[in-house]
Amino acid sequence: MSRLRVPSTPSWRAPRPRVVGLGALLWAGLVTGRIGWAQEGSPLPPTNAPRTAADTSTVRPAPIVTWGDLKGAAIGTGLAALAVPADGWVRSAVRRPEWQVLEGVQQLARAGNLWGDPTVLTLGTGMWIGGRLTGYPRVAQVGLRAFETIGVSGVITRVLKASIGRARPNHPPYDVWDVEFGRGWESARGDGAYEAMPSGHATAAFAFASAVSNEVALIAPAHARTVRLTTYGLATWTAYSRMHTDAHWLSDVVLGAAVGTVTGWAVTRWHATRPGNVIDRYLLGSAVVTPIVTPAPLGGTRVGVSLTWP
Predict the structure, then answer these.
(1) Res 220 pLDDT > 60
(2) How far apart, in Å, do the first and last CA atoms of the chain sit?
(3) How far is CA 27 from CA 32, 49, 78, 259, 301, in A?
(4) Please, is 116 exposed, middle or buried when counting C-beta atoms within 10 Å of its C-beta (0-12, 13-18, 19+)?
(5) Residues 6+ apart with CB under 8 A from 37
(6) Kindly report the CA angle at 187 between 239 and 165, in degrees rounded to 5?
(7) 61-119 residue pLDDT tens
(8) Dihedral angle computed from the Cα positions of residues 93, 97, 99 and 101, in that order, rounded to the nearest 10 degrees
(9) CB-CB contact of 215 with 268 (8 Å)
(10) Each residue of 119-176: pLDDT tens digit?
(11) Which tens digits make up the pLDDT trace of 247-298?
């Protein structure tokens, strides 16, 4: 396996103005050039009215991956690359002793970490199953999209972590450029010290934000802005929390945010252009709920439910 070693001195300097400016331009491109739902091959009805599963008159299946997805992924990768020279400087700023001793900040950082794992996955699953059992199909639909997006983006992130093999900032020699390609596959069976890039917590938090906000924009556009600001705000705090606890470098969370966001675009668009697809028929169809009461092996009673899909 090859090992990439670059002098770490540049990583501890404040970013140059031209780097900051280029990063701002790339970020503007990511925001303004974000996937348009009316891309070629994936037109959707205007989002000023909720869609229904039966509304197929103007919908044709979109590709799994579009040029918009590739553009978003490229910009996110570019932003992560630009962040690498600033990683050490940002870590020094975030890890200042006077900042770390503030109990309020510590509590918020713990909350941000919990939001990225396991809260978003638990919440998405709960919305999906709970919406189905209580007769709220739109809630179930949003929850399922979040569940799917977190799952797909998690697989992508796991492969990237293991392949890149970057050391975490809290692992000796605390070097921004400590990268050995493929090393993360071995680390995955241990303490995960070489699985820094990208951040899994940031991936999951932004995947949840992307899927939920995009889905709400389709089925309840009046609430889209509030949901987008809330979910992306929480995801951004999760990304900060990963740096605050010294689990990730800045570039790790930037790449994780890109993976989660772009995956959310792809998943919600795939479903939106394929109404009544087999996944939705099975996972959002009518479920038969059967209570189960059985004696436990060591005494007592087990109570549960059986869910049967058509």
Answers:
(1) yes
(2) 49
(3) 9, 29, 10, 15, 56
(4) buried
(5) 43, 44, 47, 269, 272
(6) 65
(7) 989 999 999 999 999 999 999 999 999 999 999 999 998 989 999 999 999 999 999 99
(8) 160
(9) yes
(10) 999 999 999 999 998 989 999 999 999 999 999 999 999 999 999 999 999 999 999 9
(11) 999 999 999 999 999 999 999 999 999 998 999 988 998 656 566 767 766 5
DSSP state string for 155-200: HHHHHHHHHH-BPPTTSTT--TT-EETTTHHHHTTTT-TT--SS-H
Angle at 173 between CA 171 and CA 176, to 5 degrees: 85
Consecutive H or E run containing 290: strand 288-295
Q: Rounded to the nearest 5 degrees, what angle is found at the Cα of 85, between the Cα atoms of 79 and 87? A: 85
What does each C-alpha distance from 266 to 24, 65, 72, 285 come to in angstroms? 25, 6, 11, 22
The token duo for 231 is 């979910």
Give DSSP secondary structure letters for 95-153: T-HHHHT-HHHHHHHHHHHHIIIIIHHHHHHHHHHHHHHHT-HHHHHHHHHHHHHHHHH
- Residue 202 one-letter amino acid: A
